[in-house]
Amino acid sequence: MAIIVNLDVMMAKRKMSLNELSTRVDITLANLSILKTGKAKAIRFSTLEAICRALNCQPGDLLEYVPDGDQEGR
After folding, report:
1. CA–CA distance, 21 with 9 (Å, rounded to integer)
2. Using CB atoms within 10 A of its CB, is residue 47 exposed (0-12), middle (13-18) or buried (19+)?
């Protein structure tokens, strides 16, 4: 997939656990885990906004475009 989710990186920078983020954003652990592992196929803007608010970051901090073929080593 060409869109890489860097949620785990931002959570580590903010020293926030998946449980804490789940509580702050009001998203189930299962859905947040799917997003964190890059298995999600879509994300609502409202969810992205809530995550950005909780982590004090920009959408670009969470989502990264990587052209196909450049994903090795990720």
Report:
1. 13
2. middle
